[in-house]
Amino acid sequence: MNPQETLARASDRLTSSDLGSSAGLPFVSVAIITLNNKPTIERCLESIDDLDYPRDKYEIVVVDGGSSDGTLDLLQKFRVKQVIDRRPCRGAARNTAVKNCGGELIAFTDADCMVDKRWLKSHVSIHRDPRIMVAAGSVLQGGDFGLPTTLYHSTYFATQSPATTRRNTWEIATCNASFKASSFKVAGPFQELDRGEESLLCWKIIQKGFQVVFDPSPKVVHLHRHMNFNALFKRSREEGYSDRLLQGAFGDRAPFRLPKSYALVAILTPSLAMARLARYFTKLVSGGYKKTRALLSIPVLIASSFYWLRGYLTASTHSRNSSSTSESSFKPPV
Predict the structure, then answer these.
(1) Are residues 156 and 200 in the same domain?
(2) Residue 143: which domain range?
(3) pLDDT band at residue 334, thresholds of 50, 70 and 90?
(4) What is the tens place of the pLDDT at every residue in 248-283?
(5) Has residue 215 got a pLDDT over 60?
(6) Is residue 334 situated within a structural domain?
(7) SS3 category, 271
(8) Is 171's pLDDT higher than 50?
(9) What is the DSSP string of 222-233?
(10) Mean pLDDT in the chain?
(11) Cα 224 to chain center, whole Å?
(12) How far apart are CA 300 and CA 133, in angstroms?
C-alpha cells in the first residue's frame, strides 16, 4: 500500500466525524514537552482540562526534560501521562511524545501556552479533509507585553497571527499544531533539532503530496516571560544559527535558499543583513503590526538582523571546521 492509501484510510474516521456528537469524535492525544516550566504549565493544563471536548476522548502526554523547579511534583495534580526524556533537544522530546501517544490525532501545544476552549474541536474539524496532514492555529500574545517581547512575538509567530487568513504553509510552530498520527509513519519522525524541526517535517509531508494548512480558528495564548533587549538579540542569534542548520537539513529541495559556505556568507554579509531586516519588517506588518509602529521599530530590527547574521556566520564556521560532524548535531551558542 502506498503512502497516500495508508494515510487516506487512517483519515476515514477523522473525515466522517460528527463534531456535534460525542460518539463521533476521534480520540486525540495532547502532547506537551517541558523543562522547568512550573510558572506556566499549571495554567496550561487547567486550560486543557477545561476543553469543550469529552474528557474520555483525549489524553495528555507530558514529556519532561528533567525539571528541577517542582514541575514534576505539580504534574501529579493532573491526569497526565508523564514521560522523562533528558536529551537536551526539542526534536527528540517531540519524538518521545509521539511514541507515547495513542490518539488518531496528535495536538501539540507548549507548557507556556493556554488553549482556547474549542481548541481541539477546531483542530479535529480541519482534519476532516483527508488531504490535510498538519494543521496550525493562531498564537496570541500573553504574559509580557513589553516592546522586546512584542517584537519577538510579532516576528517569530507572524505566520500564525490571528490577523492572517487560512492558507497552505510549511512554516509552523508546534505550540499550536496538530498532526494525523499516521503522518509520522510516512514522513516522520521529527529531526533532532532545537529549532525548526516541525517545519522540516511539514516540508517532507508536502513532498509526499499532502497539505499543511494554517487556519486561525484553533487559538492558543503564549504566556511570554519578561524579555529585555539582550534576550531579544540572543533569540535572534539563535534563530540565525538554526536557519543555517536547517539549510543543511532541508537538502537540495529547500523551501528557502541561503548561502551555506562561510566564504559566501562573509561576502554577502551586507545583503544578508538587509534581507533579514526586510523579512522582519514584512513579518511585523503581515502579522497585523501597524506600519507606523513597524517603522519606529526599525533600529531594533536592524540590531536583531545583525545578531541573526552573527548566529548564521557562527553556524557556517562550525560547518566548515567540523566536516566529520553532522550539522544537525550542532547546538546553538549560549
Answers:
(1) yes
(2) 3-224
(3) very low
(4) 888 777 888 888 888 898 899 999 999 999 999 999
(5) yes
(6) no
(7) helix
(8) yes
(9) EEEPP--HHHHH
(10) 88
(11) 15
(12) 37
- Do 179 and 132 form a contact (C-beta atoms < 8 A)? no
C-alpha to C-alpha distances, 279 to 138, 154, 282, 287, nearest whole angstrom = 20, 12, 5, 12
Burial class (CB in 10 A: 0-12, 13-18, 19+), 13: middle
- Residues whose CB falls within 8 Å of the CB of residue 149, separated by 6 or more in sequence, listed in order: 141, 143, 224, 226, 227, 232
Residue 207 has pLDDT above 50, yes or no: yes
What is the count of structural domains for the chain?
2
**Is 231 within 8 Å of 280 (Cβ atoms)?**
no
Indicate whether 77 belongs to any domain.
yes
Question: From CA 74, how far away is CA 281, in angstroms rounded?
Answer: 40
CA 205/CA 160 separation, integer angstroms = 19
SS3 category, 298: helix
pLDDT score, position 8: 42
Among 260, 98, 115, 107, CA closest to 191: 98
Any idea what the Cα angle at residue 41 is, between residues 163 and 43, rounded to 5°? 70
Residues 237 and 211 in one domain: no
Residues 164 and 311 in one domain: no
Whose cell is 500564525? That residue is 160
Q: 96-107: per-residue pLDDT in tens?
A: 999 999 999 999
Q: Which three cell numbers stand for residue 307?
A: 545578531
Q: What pLDDT was estimated at residue 19?
A: 60
Last residue of a domain, which of 205, 224, 243?
224
Q: Are residue 71 and residue 22 in the same domain, yes or no?
A: yes
Measured CA to CA, the distance from residue 55 to residue 166 in angstroms comes to 29
254 vs 199: CA distance, rounded Å: 11
| Residue 188 three-state SS | coil
pLDDT digit string (tens) for 6-49? 334 444 444 444 565 566 899 999 999 999 999 999 999 999 99
DSSP helix, strand, coil percent of the chain (3-state; round to 5): 50, 20, 35
pLDDT of 324 higher than 70: no
Q: Work out whether strand 211-224 and strand 167-168 pair parallel, antiparallel, or are unpaired.
A: antiparallel
